[in-house]
Amino acid sequence: MAEMEQSPHHSGLGLSPIGNGWLGAIAPLRLCCGDPCFGKCHSIFSGSILSTRYTLYETSKATMLGFQSGFRRLNVIPTLHRRWRAKYLYDLLRSLVDRDMKLLYKRSMLGVAWTLLNPLLQLMVFVFVFQVVLPVDVPQYSSFVFTGLLVWTWFQSSLLQATGTIICNRPLIRQPGFPTAILPIVTITTGLIHFILALPVLVVFLWIDGATLTPAALWLPVIQVLQFVVTVGLTYFLAALNVTFRDTQHTLGVLLQLFFYITPIFYDIKNIPVEYQPFFFLNPMVHVVTAYRDILMYGTAPNWPPLLAIAAGAILLMPIGYRIFKHQSNRFVEEL
Which among 46, 126, 165, 213 counts the fewest CB atoms within 10 Å? Predict the structure, then answer.
């Protein structure tokens, strides 16, 4: 790597010199000991990834040097640079998600089962209270509640953890050239994996309650992408704000607890008095949770008009949140 840094041909290629691209960003990515958010030192990238990239780079370098001027005229070098960067970001995302999963369940006897423990315990409480003590008229109540709990758990945990992700990743933030914007996406992707792992349990509840999956369930990835984009747009703004105002994460926890009760998780929105329903429909998660239930429990297509409105808002929110995050990212090292 030291030879490549000194080589005049490397910078001439425009393929991200040391410290300004995949090769420079991979080299220093090692988590430091002593940070409260991490345990022992964990290498971000294995040697195989780096060696593979380096071999591909060396193989193509001779050919590219011979046609460098022509490539520039054809705008090929910027295209190759974008492809390399996209591949690097994908590998980085995969490695960071893998790191989070390993650290979360390190030395745990139950492992991923802990992900299901909280919603299952909540389900038991809601079933006892609203089916035994204070019965409510909601068919297939176990599946109804468990669907809402899985959706809400992904949203709540991702939002809370992603808000504090900059503070919890100090060693990475301090590395020159590290793409800080990927950290909220890592947290939300980890939550999505937990959501997907819990789906077989949901299918069991649906089978017990007599519900049958229909082709409408194929809309599931679309609803997941919508929820993913909405969450990312919110976390960019909140993560940047939390670096300066550390009370943001605590305030968010209180607000999410309040929103839990105004989202139809353990009750049906139809049981709300008609005069109050318009206020509940202002909550985007009402429509998202209802869409999951429509396609998984009732076998019908979701109600698209409110979902399209949420998608339009997410498309507007995403770049705004990203711009705020990038603007604040210049001060992350100083604030930390």
Answer: 46
